[in-house]
Write a structure and sequence with these properties.
Rossmann fold; 6-stranded mixed β-sheet; 8-stranded mixed β-sheet; 42% helix; 15% strand; rod-shaped; 22 helices; 859 residues
């Protein structure tokens, strides 16, 4: 509704200005705002926020409203005004630029109020003042172009109207990105970059220092709201916004206190503020009053270079502030021009009068400003003052004004150089410089591209925006305590990939930090952990969850843990997958060495006993114990000891097959020999009874055949097992997460069970046979030793089963090897130790007479 009212008012002012009366123009209203004026062949308009305070008139609708009362002249902005005047005077004296054409100007104060700005714009394009002398309303319009308005909200409203008539509006300070929309603002140009680039510059700084948790504050106007909206949209791809607050343009106090409380409560250390100097001042004062320290402020170009805010009073809370600033320029001759102005009492040039009165605290006769009773005598020297007006060390907005005037001048110069027949308009015609229209200037202004006398290229892109180059400034305090705004870097949007350049050595950080501050909601999750977002909080706020066993994250801030592949496992820090430790019973570890030594010793011992038996094969002890079966038994025991070595070392297809086959056949051969020896003992005893001769049915050939038969059965079982589903090496990753148990897979459970079952069956038959024959006469007490050996064998293997099942990793194999060795040693010692003792240590008992004497119970 407000915009509609303003639009209607503006149209009324425009059309009332052009109302015809037989057919002359009628002045509907005398313009009463402060301004500067100088007549020229071509007039340029200017709108500046010279006064930063204004009192609106009381509207009663019963009488004509009083004019707005503007107050508090800003010396810095008045410098901008004089920069426009200086640029026009410089162009008028330049024979190479617009020769024979004199530029004039009419500049007004908008008092930082939109209604005043609209009234100023209407005066500029419609002539609402008494300077109109041509009653035919013909010729060049009152102004061809307007330099201003600096306030984005004002520029939006004014540009909408000017665009209807294609009157160019060249702003030096309105940076709202919305003004880049050529559909809505086709005749808008500016020498300040769009806020879209300012936002990019801020985000590049934030990303450069790794700040992912920031707060945002913006004024409640088009400038602030468009900027913060762009910031939120672009920043979401990198970080999170802790809070967004809005600085109101009216009734500020309560809202400002609330904003400061939000800043205190937030954990964000970096605060971005899009605001003008006037609007942010209250926030700065409240922050200082509450002594809010430990914050890194990032200032928009609207207030980053304000010497009023960058003061000793504010430095304790705002020291180290980083700001985006308009490019600074060094305008030669401007300083002298500023010092040379003199007041001349003229209603159309009353701004100089007001400036003089404010600067020196005096007043002219008939002045409306009452400061004191001291009269101005016009002999005061500006050079003796130091204000924002005389300070030319930071020419930023003033430099933009300078470029805006020169851009218009170069457009007019190109227009004047046009040759008929080569022009851009209908029938290749050119514009007449003496009767040029705004829309004709608009065409040339779009194509402006020149290098000014400072060596900087001035041009507009397709959106009417200036080349996006910013200075990066830093608030620093000198040794004398004076706050200095120092340029410490540059942002150049055209330098893609390297837009930001900073001189880190010149950077001053808030003493609370001492170095680059850290502003994150949650610290980065180190490798070995993953991010877990907190419910109901921004994505930058998260917890770091350690990766589970077998999972890793090898990057900072991983969102998930990756599972290691089968042969890999996570290291202790869960930061990388490492090969799992391969575990098997090795010849290198102590257990492997011990078992292999015991195995080799057992084999050697068996061979030693075999050698003794062969050497003493003709003695009664050897003969009485069936020497051939004893030899075969010792050979089989040797294989039993040696087969244990197949269980030690890294499993392979060959060793996996050998260990079970050799083990199965060796033990069957061993037990078959013992079983046949037991049968021989029983047969021999039965043959001593009258009328029996069983030994003829179980002679040497039958004994050999029985051993071969029993062994052949086991061999057939092994062959079937190996041909159907043989054992093979297996990497077992299920038993222990961090290890690979390298073992032999039995392949066929049926085959493995058959081998063990057959051994167990023979062992049971042998044990029962020996047990039944244990009470035979002493010289045939072989059965007692066999019974004892089988008792050991069965006890070992019965105990083996639970131990085998419960043993982890390589200890499973060690238990099996131990069972093989223990049962082998049991048979070896139980059967052969007594005989070796007699042969080697009691040779007197190794005689037939001694044996026969033991066999006769009566002796």
């Amino acid at each position: 509704m407000v915009n509609l009212w303003l639009f209607s008012t503006f149209l009324y002012l425009i059309f009332s200005a052009f109302a015809l009366k037989d057919p002359s123009c009628t002045i509907q209203e005398k313009f009463d705002l402060n301004g500067l004026y100088k007549k020229g062949d071509i007039m340029l308009g200017g709108i500046f926020e010279i006064s930063y305070k204004a009192v609106p008139p009381e509207v009663t609708f019963t009488s004509k409203p009083e004019p707005w009362k503007c107050d508090s002249l800003d010396f810095s902005v008045f410098q901008w005004v004089q920069t426009m005047v200086f640029a026009i005077e410089q162009i008028n004296h330049d024979p190479s630029l617009l020769p024979n054409v004199t530029l004039g100007y009419r500049i007004y104060d908008n008092c930082v109020k939109l209604p005043v700005a609209l009234k100023a714009a209407s005066a500029l394009i419609g002539g609402l003042d008494d300077t109109i002398t041509d009653n035919t309303c013909k010729g060049t319009p009152p102004v061809l172009a307007i330099v201003g308005d600096p306030v984005s909200t004002h520029a939006i409203a004014i540009s909408r109207i000017l665009s209807l008539f294609r009157i160019p509006l060249v702003s030096y300070y309105a940076s709202c990105s919305c003004l880049s929309n050529k559909r809505e603002f086709p005749s808008f140009f500016r020498t300040i970059p769009s806020d879209a680039f300012q936002v990019k510059a801020m985000i590049r700084i934030i990303r450069h220092y790794g700040w992912t948790w920031v707060g945002g504050i913006a004024t409640d106007d088009d400038y602030g709201q468009y900027a913060i909206r762009n910031f939120i949209e672009d920043f979401k791809n990198f970080g999170c916004i802790s809070f967004i607050e809005t600085i109101p343009t009216v009734n500020q106090k309560a809202q400002i206190i609330q904003i400061v409380n939000t800043i205190k409560q937030s954990t964000a250390k970096v605060i971005v503020i899009f605001s003008s100097i006037a609007d942010v001042t209250a926030l700065v004062k409240e922050t200082v009053r509450q002594n809010i320290t430990g914050r890194q402020w990032i200032a928009s170009e609207g207030w980053s270079t304000s010497s009023v805010l960058a003061s000793k009073e504010n430095f304790g809370q705002f020291d180290g502030t980083i700001g985006i600033a308009i490019r600074k320029g060094n305008i030669l001759g401007l300083k002298d021009f500023l010092l040379e102005i003199r007041p001349k009492y003229d209603a159309s040039n009353n701004l100089v009068i007001q400036f003089w009165e404010r600067l020196f605290g005096c007043k002219f006769e008939n002045s409306s400003i009452l400061i004191n009773n001291v009269l101005c005598n016009e002999t005061e020297l500006i050079s003796g003052t130091f204000t924002g007006y005389t300070d030319v060390s930071e020419l930023r907005a003033a430099y933009n004004v300078y470029k805006a005037v020169y851009a218009i001048a170069h457009a007019l110069h190109s227009l004047a150089l046009c040759k008929n027949g080569q022009g851009p308009f209908g029938n290749s015609t050119c514009a007449d410089i003496a009767n040029v229209q705004p829309w004709q200037l608009f065409h040339y202004l779009k194509k402006v591209n020149f290098t000014n006398n400072l060596g900087e290229r001035v041009a507009f892109d397709e959106n009417g925006d200036a080349l996006a180059i910013y200075d990066i400034v830093n608030w620093q305090r000198k040794e004398d305590g004076i706050v200095h705004i120092k340029t410490i870097g540059l942002f150049d949007a055209a330098n893609v990939g390297n837009e930001l350049s900073l001189n880190e050595a010149d950077m001053f950080w808030n003493p609370v930090f001492g170095t680059v501050p850290e502003s994150v909601c949650s610290k980065s999750c180190q490798p070995g952990s993953r991010k877990a977002n907190r419910k109901g909080e921004p994505i930058c706020c998260f917890d770091c969850i350690p990766c589970a066993e077998g999972e890793i994250s090898n990057q900072t801030d991983s969102i998930e843990c990756l599972k290691c592949l089968g042969d890999f496992w996570s290291n202790r820090g869960r930061s990388q997958c490492v090969l799992k430790e391969i575990e098997y019973l090795s010849y290198d570890d102590a257990m492997g060495i011990t078992l292999s030594t015991v195995s080799a010793f057992g084999a050697c011992l068996s061979l030693g006993v075999l050698a003794v038996f062969i050497y003493y094969r003709n003695t009664p002890v050897v003969k009485a114990n069936n020497s051939e079966l004893s030899f075969l038994l010792l050979v089989s025991l040797t294989f039993c000891f040696l087969c244990a070595l197949c269980f030690i070392g890294q499993p392979s297809h060959l060793t996996c097959m050998l260990r079970h086959v050799v083990f199965g056949i060796s033990f069957v051969l061993c037990i078959s020999c013992i079983l046949v020896k037991t049968i021989v003992v029983i047969m021999a005893f039965k043959s001593t009874l009258p009328g029996t001769n069983l030994m003829k049915w179980f002679g040497v050939a039958q004994q050999r055949g029985t051993v071969v038969f029993f062994t052949l059965i086991q061999s057939i079982i092994c062959i079937i097992w190996l041909s159907t589903n043989p054992p093979g090496p297996l990497k077992n990753t299920k038993y222990q997460n961090g290890k690979i148990i390298f073992e032999c897979n039995i392949g066929s459970v049926t085959g493995f069970s058959s081998v063990l079952g057959y051994i167990g069956l023979l062992a049971c038959i042998c044990f029962l046979s020996a047990f039944l024959a244990r009470k035979l006469p002493d010289n045939f007490n072989e059965a007692k030793f066999i019974t004892f050996s089988m008792l050991i064998f069965c006890a070992v293997w019965i105990t083996f089963i639970p131990a085998y099942v419960s043993s982890p990793g390589k200890y499973t194999v060690a238990v099996e090897v131990f069972a093989i060795l223990a049962s082998s040693y049991g048979i070896l010692f139980a059967i052969f130790a007594p005989k070796c003792y007699i042969i080697l240590f009691k040779p007197e008992k190794n005689t037939k007479k001694a044996l026969m004497g033991r066999a006769d119970p009566s002796k």
